[in-house]
Amino acid sequence: MAKQPMLKFVQIERDMPQKRDASVRKEDFNEIYAEYAAAKAEEQASRCSQCGVPYCQSHCPLHNNIPDWLRLTATGRLEEAYAASQATNTFPEICGRICPQDRLCEGNCVIEQSGHGTVTIGSVEKYITDTAWENGWVKPAAPLAERSESVGIIGGGPGGLAAADMLRKAGVQVTVYDRYDRAGGLLMYGIPSFKLEKDVVERRNKLLADGGVTFKLNCNVGEDITFEEIRSKHNAVIIATGVYKSRDLAMPGSGSEGIVKAIDFLCASNKKSFGDEVAEFDNGSLNAEGKKVVVIGGGDTAMDCVRTSIRQGATSVKCLYRRDRANMPGSQRETQNAEEEGVVFEWLSAPKGFTDEGGKVAGVMVQKMRLGQPDASGRQAPEVIEGADYVEEADLVIKALGFEPEQLPALWNQPELPVTRWGTVKAAFKTGATDLDGVYAVGDIVRGASLVVWAIKDGRDCAEAILETFNRKTALAAE
């Protein structure tokens, strides 16, 4: 009888790829995790229990065939593992790097709940696809036949690019309109390189272009081209703009110089890494070097800001969050990485204003909190502890409070574009169809600020719905 290649979680312990020492990695913007060697990837994949009800798969927004490609990896069948992985995920190497696996697939691994430590799903996923790129298994779209229909996609982030990939593979003519000079959205400009090196995104963009996707960059809808012009050029339009409007703080001193938005800070850092001219970075306004930095917020964007500040050479970095560690929305893994790199977390702390010297921020007025009764979401609501205020010194304050949608009906002169009371575009569940004929919407502009993996799912689902509509119209015309 052949030796059982799986179910080795009892004999083999969980083992993540080696992580570079914090004292070394905080000096650069390179990714912090090494790549698995083939033997280690096979070993860790073999820990999968091949359970009858794979909660890892059901808790993945894309419902990736995780047990299947773990078994294929464990038995050395990597090209088949890649085929299984990319069948449900347009960007597996990106999800393997940036998905919060501790909250999704790995957080629901059956063997972890039995006390054996989760399978390292994300690291194996990354290894599979990086190996596929190295071996030339990743190919540009080569549709069996070209179609006459065309789709315009507004926004080159993960949702828009996932839809572009699916549509182009079916032979649809696809044009992506993006306001930036590089496609990728927050994958390119929002997420730091120590989590997602930019050549990983750039090679995907090149693959899409090589497969026939047309990119119109530096194209701001509403200024360089109207929404109506885009609609007139295409059989369908997908709105995939994401949400870029930063939530703000209206409190004393909030207009002081040195109080900046997270998206501006992260974009400046990423643009600088490309070698671009970034005046706000060079003059110090969006550069943490030599400064006492305070980041306000507890999500993944806040973690990106504190860890970027460390790498830029801040003298100190503190993160204020109004709840405790157990209730923060960001990844626990990212919080641990930040602490290892020297970030200090001030839990149960919230700003009430800012002090300044000559118009420049000098500190954050902090009020200490305690957790009271649960709020409407079920989380314990923070309450102010009277008389426990203090001032946290700061030369640079970064607001990482989340994002809201831009007012697209006004920006695009489209008052009939249906939006919710939160400003997100109203679109049908699963298909992304709006009330405007031939207009769809996907990703954060529909959901609000969410995860990359959800945007990918929305883009793929929307592409499928558009193809069904095209096929139905073709069939009716042929009758």
From TrEMBL:
Entry superkingdom: Bacteria
Keyword terms: 4Fe-4S, Iron, Iron-sulfur, Metal-binding, Oxidoreductase
Domain FAD/NAD(P)-binding residue range list: 151-459
Keyword 4Fe-4S applies: yes
Protein name according to UniProt: Dihydropyrimidine dehydrogenase subunit A
Residue span, Dihydroprymidine dehydrogenase domain: 25-136
Keyword Cell membrane: no
InterPro entries registered for this protein in UniProt: DPD_II, FAD/NAD-bd_sf, FAD/NAD-binding_dom, GltD-like, Helical_ferredxn
An example Gene Ontology molecular-function term: 4 iron, 4 sulfur cluster binding
